[in-house]
């Protein structure tokens, strides 16, 4: 494999398995149909002053996220984050080199009850204190989504709480409503969402009723391209962190960063005709880049090409190609819409090179960049609770109880109605 041919060592996925939340699922035997947004004080019946104070603080909402391989449960009061519990099954997917939907679904089934119980304990609230429940209804893996939606429906049926089925993509943006270092969600904004399952550019006029998809990947998501390319280079899942480590020279014993210009890999949908085409100008394609890496690896292993190229050089060149097209098209979106604010979200936001290049180029273009804390960029329940709380605060009707999951839910469908 090229990892040996380029004097590098095989990377080992070193992400530690997140401890699964333990505990018993909270149950409430008495359903209540009428609930004031203030709810009931934890010690018993609420006084008038307590109810008024709680109402002023905003609705108390529990959010459930299960769209991929992380079981997330968050609790938000208004725009204050009380807890963000996450149980990940990432380590169970390492041997497969990527997320296996059936494995993810089974992990959600095991984790969801304990995660809800732990979140309630950490937030120091009881389930009967909640004002609403929110759950990701799409987009995502159908089986994984079903676990979260089924759990949320069970809680809602047992308690009489309103239930909001919400959009995963909108939630990634809404999380900035509750980030500790955030002055509040800025609108309008261009949102760049990059993860293992999604790569989109959105125009956000209002987080609930004005979201427009400007562009998306037409094949692999950026995170998926990282995972597949990592396998070509002999690196383990998850590909993103391991490619970044390789690019930094951390895997060949030298500690010398790779040259991002060593191999000129293609930038998908970036030719002049692509950029003149409104349907392609803000869209992405990473399949050609992945094929280019495969051809490079094959040629190198056959003894062709520059034998002085290191694993670090190839990894850095690939990473640069992905980052370059993400940043360039995001700034095109700013230019075309006249919006001078960008929010970065999704798991790939953890990529250091992406944050560096986006920071540099936004500053040069006079665009403000906002990156929420990294723990809130990956899939989590806090983002679902944040969007649910915003929807509840606007007194919107809850979702019909018979709603289903939609693996390809459109970005503008923020609330299942």
UniProtKB/TrEMBL annotation:
Signal peptide start-end: none
Catalytically driven reaction(s): L-threonylcarbamoyladenylate + adenosine(37) in tRNA = N(6)-L-threonylcarbamoyladenosine(37) in tRNA + AMP + H(+)
Chain spans, region Disordered: 1-50
First-listed, main subcellular location of the protein, grouped into a coarse class: cytoplasm
Binding site for substrate: 193-197, 227, 240, 351
Annotated Pfam families: TsaD
Locations listed in the record: Cytoplasm
Residues that, per the record, bind Fe cation: 168, 172, 379
Domain of life: Bacteria
Compositional bias segments (type: Basic and acidic residues): 7-37
Sequence ranges assigned to domain Gcp-like in this UniProt record: 81-385
Free-text comment on the cofactor: Binds 1 Fe(2+) ion per subunit.
Cofactors demanded by this protein: Fe(2+)
Key words, A-Z: Acyltransferase, Cytoplasm, Iron, Metal-binding, Transferase, tRNA processing
Annotated EC: 2.3.1.234
InterPro entries given in the database record: ATPase_NBD (IPR043129), Gcp-like_dom (IPR000905), KAE1/TsaD (IPR017861), TsaD (IPR022450)
Family note: Belongs to the KAE1 / TsaD family.
Function: Required for the formation of a threonylcarbamoyl group on adenosine at position 37 (t(6)A37) in tRNAs that read codons beginning with adenine. Is involved in the transfer of the threonylcarbamoyl moiety of threonylcarbamoyl-AMP (TC-AMP) to the N6 group of A37, together with TsaE and TsaB. TsaD likely plays a direct catalytic role in this reaction.
UniProt-recorded name of the protein: tRNA N6-adenosine threonylcarbamoyltransferase
Organism of this sequence: Brevibacterium pityocampae
């Amino acid at each position: 494999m090229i990892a040996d041919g380029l004097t590098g060592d095989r990377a080992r996925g070193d992400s530690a398995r997140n401890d699964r939340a333990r505990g018993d699922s909270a149950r409430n035997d008495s359903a209540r149909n009428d609930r004031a947004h203030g709810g009931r004080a934890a010690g018993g019946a609420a006084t008038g002053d307590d109810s008024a104070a709680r109402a002023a603080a905003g609705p108390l909402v529990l959010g459930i996220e299960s769209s991929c391989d992380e079981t997330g449960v968050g609790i938000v009061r208004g725009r204050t984050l009380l807890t963000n519990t996450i149980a990940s099954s990432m380590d169970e997917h390492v041997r497969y080199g990527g997320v296996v939907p059936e494995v993810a679904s089974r992990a959600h089934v095991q984790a969801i009850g304990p995660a809800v119980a732990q979140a309630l304990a950490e937030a120091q609230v009881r389930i009967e204190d909640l004002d609403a429940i929110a759950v990701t209804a799409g987009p995502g893996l159908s089986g994984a989504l079903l676990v979260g939606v089924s759990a949320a429906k069970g809680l809602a049926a047992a308690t009489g709480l309103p239930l909001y089925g919400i959009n995963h993509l909108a939630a990634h943006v809404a999380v900035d409503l509750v980030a500790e270092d955030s002055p509040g969600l800025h609108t309008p904004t261009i949102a760049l969402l990059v993860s293992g399952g999604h790569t989109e550019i959105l125009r956000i006029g209002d987080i609930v009723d004005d979201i427009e998809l400007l562009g998306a990947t037409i094949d692999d998501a950026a995170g998926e391209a990282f995972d597949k390319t990592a396998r070509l280079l002999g690196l383990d899942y998850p590909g993103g962190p391991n490619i970044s480590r390789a690019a930094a020279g951390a895997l060949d014993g030298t500690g010398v960063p790779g040259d991002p210009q060593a191999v000129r890999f293609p930038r998908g949908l970036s030719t002049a005709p692509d950029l003149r085409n409104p349907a392609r100008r803000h869209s992405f394609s990473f399949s050609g880049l992945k094929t280019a890496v495969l051809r490079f690896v094959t040629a190198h292993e056959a003894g062709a090409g520059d034998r002085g190229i290191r694993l670090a050089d190839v990894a850095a060149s690939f990473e640069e190609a992905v980052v370059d097209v993400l940043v360039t098209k995001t700034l095109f979106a700013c230019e075309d819409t006249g919006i001078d604010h960008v929010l970065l979200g999704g798991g790939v936001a953890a990529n250091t090179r992406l944050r560096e290049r986006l920071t540099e180029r936004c500053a040069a273009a006079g665009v403000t960049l906002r990156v929420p804390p990294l723990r809130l960029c990956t899939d989590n329940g806090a983002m679902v609770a944040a969007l649910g709380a915003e929807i509840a605060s606007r007194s919107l009707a809850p979702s019909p109880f018979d709603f289903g999951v939609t693996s390809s839910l459109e970005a503008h469908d923020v609330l299942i109605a």
